[in-house]
Request: fold
Amino acid sequence: MASDRCYAGPRAAAPDITLGAVYNTAMAIVLPDGLTSQQIRVLQEYRRMNVQALTIEAIQAIRHPTGGGEMPAVRLAAAGWLKLDESGSYALTEKGSEFLAIEATPEVAETSDTLAPAARESGAAGA
Reply:
């Protein structure tokens, strides 16, 4: 009988080998062109400051949760995103400038708030 059993909390689920392959696509972040989050943070600093070159000190001062320093800029220079100029600053290359020109917007499902104006317009047109 069920009353003879003692409740010990939720039952442990049997191991599911496919569980590791399932992820929430709404939360997935795909970093472009093999860039790390630190490298993207360095490139974003050029956009934020609206400059074409940053000094080594400015790059080392960029805060990032998982570390930073000059190494992301060194790797960006090796990959052609930045170049070290004669003054010792890292300047954007054409490749870096093209990356920063991208106006990325998140792909999200349309909500009722975004559908409301379209519905009002179609309702007005049909009236």
About this structure: The chain is about 40% helix and 10% strand. Residues 112-126 form the longest helix (15 residues).
